């Protein structure tokens, strides 16, 4: 059922609008407010799928109501109702975020089409939010330790900006989770995040992978191909293990950061790109710079914000929560009932030396779920999680 609020100071118009809407669709639940203040109070206390709001009203006019609604519940579409003399104001409300405006007296077909379209848009917004929540759960950062809380706070501050971020930490600590959280909490979240594992791509192919190529640029280039930077246009590119990138490729990445321009391999034409760059490495880049394997100017371009992800051994207090999280997730994947870990089993796992970090912990939890009893005991840990 769609819930619609009509904010209108003329009782006769409220009655007409309510009658039109309820007769058109019995799934519309319509509520009324006789002025802007009353309407805004209703919006604060209840959830609506659509608001129809008059422009000229006592106490608080429609423009003020619109601005307030967009601050407290921006996902609700607001359709403005305008008298003949309000048309200029109605057009201006579109710039402030109104979905549409309807002139008085309302044309029946125009009103119903606008309401249907606005409600469809609201439904899409809700579905997108649910979908993004599901996706973001795959990149959830688990833990309440001081180290993880500090990283979460940093992400919250940095994500809405355009600042480049360099994420450091050992293998398996979850650097990619930080990158995805930065993207998901950014203004670019609706656009793609493109991941590039620089260590997994041969040095002779990295430039083609990043910047694309034109037909005939090299033996196997049988057609033009866009690279990862073009694919990430408008969104984020995550350069994982950037410490393994070749020096020639580093020089080209530096140019992108300086000029927002790329050039496909074999081409002489520049292509403008708009990407946010997040990089990650398990190497000590300052040491790599000293030994001539990494460009210092690129390092300073990338490391506007530095986020160091701690090793699991440095956040052992998070292990119980991580075990519970992985137990639920793995049990769902395996299609079996969730297995619980005894207190002694968890305590023993907290004492282990987790050189492979979270990745290793997940593997061990999966092994215990498959091989252990209905409840994972200390004995199961000793038998199947020996290191």
From TrEMBL:
Pfam families: AAA_lid_14, Response_reg, Sigma54_activat. The modification 4-aspartylphosphate is found at residue 54. Residues 141-370 form the Sigma-54 factor interaction domain. Keywords: ATP-binding, Nucleotide-binding, Phosphoprotein. Residues 3-119 form the Response regulatory domain. Gene3D superfamilies: 1.10.8.60, 3.40.50.2300, P-loop containing nucleotide triphosphate hydrolases. PANTHER family: TRANSCRIPTIONAL REGULATORY PROTEIN (PTHR32071). This is Sigma-54 dependent transcriptional regulator. It comes from Flavobacterium nakdongensis. The lineage of its organism: Bacteria, Pseudomonadati, Bacteroidota, Flavobacteriia, Flavobacteriales.
